[in-house]
User: Which sequence fits this backbone?
């Protein structure tokens, strides 16, 4: 299959120009190896079954042997031989050159205090690039008339742009996900990719990440509870109660271990709460919002399809927010930004707060229907007046991200943008 350009391509080039090594990390099947291979001049596939045993023996005796090759030299799934981290760090120190190594990993290794093979963090030597499944712009399903970068820069020109995706189209791509391997398949076959990923996750991957055997039914139950509480600030105690309804023997420690494993596999990716200075004494809720790295994991574990998710429009709304979170995170990555959420004790909220490294910020509400746009726009304006802009500055823009038909700018300045019109 032809390689589809990723937003991270240019970011990887940029990081290699300023770092000796770049670690591309993200969930399995999201395209890390393919992206790295576009720039790598030599590659070692650590998981190659014909050579895996040999690579481990080499790493045990002389790890530097695995670093030999034309640069940039790529080590795919390096985390299965953690000692390679220190080998790359040491080689970077010795060579004193940029553009030396590309590492890809679909799980974070054990913490340093738990794994004696990793002795140094790599700070200053190894840059990180977070990769997620494909956004609609990358999969060629968004027209991209509205640019997140242009909105922040104040250069976005607005007309009346039409969304190419209907509600039914969105329901399908949400269930299919942004997995590169699903693109180009027949529709029914493409929907199976996320199902297969979840099956492999609960039966194999979740055990390998920390070498601890886990009950597949229990892992699936935890994922189901997470999916039922998607895009909410549900506490871990609620997830525990949900799982305990069918598994009274599970303990708090077990649930914590399972959730930690899912985070280390980049499957769940919660949004932290934004905590700006406020003009009033209103309290800010600090709980994380529950999110997956791709909405298709939630639909697969709940055994939903494009038809059934439209039968419960309330659930569709929560899933759609998670879906928008994925795309906005992808578009924010090259801008060196982070996506948060905001919710205060007066129930004023913003589904997505985008904050860039230079302090610029924007507030986004996610809505599925046109009837909700007016209230969402009013809330965004109220939020912009609630925060203390003398300390954090005025928002670069306010946006309602929708499943609607048209993109336009309201008279009050709020942008209305269908997800099928957005890009980085």
Assistant:
């Amino acid at each position: 299959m032809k390689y589809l350009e990723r937003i991270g391509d240019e970011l990887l080039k940029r990081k290699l120009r300023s770092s000796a090594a770049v670690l591309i990390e993200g969930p399995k099947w999201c395209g890390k190896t393919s992206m790295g291979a576009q720039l790598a001049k030599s590659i070692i596939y650590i998981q190659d079954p014909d050579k895996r045993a040999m690579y481990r023996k080499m790493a045990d005796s002389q790890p530097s042997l695995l670093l030999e090759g034309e640069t940039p030299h790529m080590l795919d799934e390096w985390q299965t031989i953690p000692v390679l981290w220190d080998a790359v760090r040491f080689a970077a120190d010795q060579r004193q050159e940029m553009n030396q190594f590309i590492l890809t990993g679909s799980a974070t290794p054990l913490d340093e205090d738990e794994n004696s093979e990793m002795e140094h963090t790599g700070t200053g030597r190894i840059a990180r690039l977070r990769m997620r499944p494909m956004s609609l712009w990358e999969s060629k399903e968004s027209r991209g008339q509205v640019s997140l970068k242009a909105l922040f820069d104040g250069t976005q020109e607005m007309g009346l742009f039409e969304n190419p995706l209907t509600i039914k189209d969105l329901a399908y791509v949400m269930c299919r996900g942004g997995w590169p391997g699903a693109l180009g398949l027949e529709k029914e076959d493409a929907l199976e990719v996320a199902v297969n990923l979840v099956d492999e996750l609960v039966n194999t991957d979740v055990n390998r990440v920390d070498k601890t055997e886990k009950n597949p039914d229990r892992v699936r139950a935890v994922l189901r509870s997470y999916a039922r509480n998607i895009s909410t600030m549900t506490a871990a105690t609620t997830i525990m109660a949900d799982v305990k309804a069918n598994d009274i023997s599970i303990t708090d420690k077990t649930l914590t271990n399972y959730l930690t494993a899912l985070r280390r596999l980049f499957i769940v990716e919660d949004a932290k709460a934004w905590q700006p200075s406020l003009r009033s004494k209103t309290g800010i809720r600090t709980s994380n919002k529950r999110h997956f790295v791709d909405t298709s994991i939630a639909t697969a574990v709940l055994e939903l399809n494009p038809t059934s998710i439209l039968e419960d429009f309330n659930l569709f709304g929560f899933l759609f927010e998670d879906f928008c979170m994925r795309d906005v995170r992808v578009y924010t990555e090259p801008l060196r930004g982070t996506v948060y959420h905001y919710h205060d004790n007066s129930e004023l909220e913003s589904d997505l707060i985008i904050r860039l490294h230079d302090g610029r910020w924007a507030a986004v509400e996610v809505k599925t229907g046109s009837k909700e746009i007016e209230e969402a726009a009013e809330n965004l304006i109220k939020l912009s007046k609630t925060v203390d802009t003398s300390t954090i500055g005025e928002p670069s823009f306010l946006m309602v991200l929708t499943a609607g038909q048209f993109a336009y700018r309201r008279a009050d300045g709020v942008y209305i943008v269908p997800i099928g019109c957005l890009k980085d």
Observations:
- The two ends are 24 Å apart (CA to CA).
- The chain has 14 helices and 14 strands.
- Residues 187-208 form the longest helix (22 residues).
